[in-house]
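Continuing from the previous page...

OK, I double-checked the sequence for Zn-dependent protease against my notes and this is the correct one:
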Amino acid sequence: MNDWTKNKDKENTKPAQMNEAVHQKDSQSLLSAESSGSHTERDKRQVAAEVPAVSKAPARSHWLMIGGLVFKLFKSVKVLKIALVGTAFAGWGLIFNWQFAAVLIIVIMFHEYGHVQAMKKFGIPTKGFYLIPFVGGVAIGDKAKSEWQELYISMMGPVYGLLMTVTFFVAYLMSGNNFVGLVASISALINVFNLFPIYPLDGGHVVKSMVFSGKKYWGILFLLLGSALGFVISLKFGLYFICFFIVLGVLDLLFSWKELHHEEKISMDKYGIMFSFIWYIATVITFIGIILIMASSRVPGTEIARIILSS
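Thanks. Re-ran it with the corrected sequence; updated structure tokens here:
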């Protein structure tokens, strides 16, 4: 009886012990979890304390960011070109009127496009062209490797201008529209001005490429004879402005002889020089002829080109 009671008591105490063990285990787990949780929270607070606080940027920083974006935008080539076109249009529009300003911009852009296309033909890297308000335009690219490339690139601006001028001239003859005739006259004036034999105009590049191709003094003699002939012809027709620039061109070439004499470029042969000379003179004569014809047509505004060349 006592043994049975003892065994019974032992059996009764086992569940209690097991429950107590489980309870202790759960308590330990809970304490461990709480300890872990508190440790995690403590770590987070420690990390947060170690990381420097990021102060809110002042309101003006937003304006600085906007200013930076605007600067990058205007630094873009295309945006700069558009801005220059707009500035040129506004400037010439204030001086003359918007129609005349539009004609000037179209003529100059077509002229400069000819230079860019010539550079691309020879594989010369180019950044295109830019309009310069109140001045004109400029095509940007690497240097030519030969005198022929230099001459060809310089001539293609006026050649593109000649195509435009002749197109409007023929259109005027067929339609009799005064505005079309005025465009032809303005285009001829701008392009013939660029062919004046003085650096850095296109004509200055052309003449120097011809004269310095052989790198001999007979080039200077040839230039002087050609300039004298051009001076006499211009004087006979009362084109005193051209006479003035012929003299300037000769002086400019003589003063820069020593400097350009040492340029390392592939020279043209005598046939290339002769062809280039004929090409240059024929282009100039064509422009002047259109100017004189349009001036005699009494179309309003076309007399301006004749007056400038005769001044």
